[in-house]
Design brief:
Largest sheet: 12 strands, mixed
CATH architecture of the largest domain: Alpha-Beta Complex
Structural class: alpha+beta
Number of domains: 3
Shape: globular
Strand content: 5-15%
Length: 469
């Protein structure tokens, strides 16, 4: 025992002197000098074990090497409660997850009401109007900031993001309340709704050109009415480009359906708003956006500037609460067979090929022998993690009354995940779920009271400004 203690003391002294030696090489200027580089070389020991790891990593995808095979072998895809959903949707190569998720929470309503095996709304229809509204919002924002310096942070933000695909829950509410919804076959997908890169690039260039024209007109003393008249002409060009890329949005349409029993309905004519109010018939204003963002104080109402798609609609407004409260109301909604729209950082610690989301799915620390841990607050503050993707909770697995995993409906088609679904372990929920949308009836009076308080306004460069894609 004494010999072991002496050995441990000796090793400790060696490590201390090695560390002191390394620190002694750091110059006061902070530069990466030859002396520092030499000390770094000496600190790296290429023993047999490290050499084997280096050979493996340099010849293979480190993600595959770090994959925790025990989790893959040990999990199951069973859930104690599951909401009946329709066929998995596919946003293809576009950033429309927020819109797909928003429409997906309403699909079970239509399926139950009309006794349908599956149903899908036209994402392309609302996408058309989202793009039109975003173009108008961008140009109106340019008019609002026309006297500011081109290097102003808000102006710079607008010019960097003139025509994004991404969005948030408040975008869904604004679009449906104004334009209604239509079945998928009424306005199906197009080449450019499925793959938006080229269309977005061209229209973004056009909008930046328009921004330059409007600012130059303002510099020449043109009146606001003259600027608005020119803006309307610009919008006509954007409308033309959108129709050519996405198709013409319907004003009225005729629709009929066949139910599970093979009964064929009589054809009926609707406007998009009539279809929403008569067939879907829910009040989207009853839904509240809740966040878990430990970087900001809890039990406060927040609003993010410029986080909207319409001039006349309010910015994204949310209540920030702790993760246990967020999870509790999510559970209440799912158990009541009401799907929950949510936003998360989907790329973190997720094995999408098999649809598994758990913090221990990849063990990079074992490979690199470094500590990679950050808590949720620091991940946000230091830009390691933000909301990136919207999906829908449609099930939960309870063990002794507590959730151990959640069933997630994604919009990446049947080939990714577990036939289009993802299995989220409860710890992953804690770490990477940032927002949920819940009906007011599941919220406590104290939380609802926060909606009447004055919101704290956050800038669009706050980490929580994130257009989910």
């Amino acid at each position: 025992m004494k010999q072991r203690n002496l050995l441990n003391t000796f090793v400790g002294i060696i490590l201390i002197f090695s560390s002191l030696s390394l620190w002694a090489q750091i110059p006061s200027t902070g530069s990466l000098t030859p002396e520092v580089i030499q000390s770094l070389r000496k600190s790296f020991k290429l023993d047999a074990h490290t050499k084997a790891i280096m050979n493996a990593v340099t010849h293979n995808d480190v993600k595959k090497l770090a994959l925790n095979r025990q989790i893959i072998a040990g999990y199951d895809s069973l859930f104690s409660h599951r909401i009946e959903t329709g066929k998995v949707t596919n946003q293809q190569k576009s950033g429309r997850c927020w819109l797909f998720a928003g429409l997906n929470i309403m699909r079970p309503i239509v399926q139950r009401k009309l006794n349908l095996k599956s149903f899908e709304f036209s994402e392309n229809y609302l996408f058309f109007w989202d793009k039109m509204e975003k173009a108008n919002f961008f140009l109106e924002s340019i008019l609002k900031t026309r006297t500011r310096n081109i290097c102003d942070r808000e102006v710079e933000f607008l010019l960097k993001h003139p025509f994004p695909d991404g969005g948030q829950w408040n975008f869904v509410v604004a679009l449906i309340n104004k334009y209604g919804v239509v079945p998928k076959n009424i306005m199906p997908e197009s080449q450019h709704s499925n793959n938006t890169r080229v269309m977005n690039g061209l229209i973004s260039r056009k909008l930046r050109q328009d921004a330059a024209i409007l600012r130059q007109m303002s510099e020449k003393g043109k009146s606001k009415s003259e600027l608005r008249a020119r803006k309307t002409e610009m919008l006509a060009e954007i409308y033309r480009m959108l129709v050519l890329n996405l198709g013409m949005p319907p004003v009225k349409f005729q629709w009929r359906y066949k139910d599970k029993n093979g009964n064929l309905s009589e054809p009926k004519t609707y406007t998009p708003l009539e279809f929403f109010h008569q067939v879907v018939d829910i009040n989207l204003d009853d839904y509240v956006c809740l966040y878990n963002c430990p970087a900001h104080p809890y039990n406060k109402l927040y609003q993010i500037n410029l986080d909207r798609n319409m001039v006349e609609h309010p910015n994204l407004t949310f209540i920030n609460i702790n993760i246990d409260s967020l999870k509790a109301v999510t559970l209440r909604s799912v158990l009541a067979n009401e799907p929950v729209w949510f936003g998360c950082d989907v790329g973190k610690e997720s094995y999408i090929a098999r649809g598994i989301m758990t913090p221990s799915i990849y063990d990079y620390e074992a490979i690199y022998d470094v500590d990679l841990k950050l808590n949720k607050k620091d991940r946000i503050l230091y830009h390691d993690s933000v909301p990136t993707h919207a999906m829908v909770f449609v099930g939960v697995d309870l063990v002794e009354g507590k959730p151990v995993k959640w069933l997630v409906e994604n919009s990446w088609g049947m080939k990714r995940g577990c036939k289009g679904y993802l299995i989220m372990f409860d710890k992953w929920f804690d770490d990477y779920v940032y927002e949920v949308v819940i009906n007011k009836k599941y919220l406590s009076p104290s939380v609802l009271a926060l909606l009447k308080t004055k919101p704290i306004v956050l800038p669009p460069w706050d980490p929580m400004y994130s257009l989910l894609e």
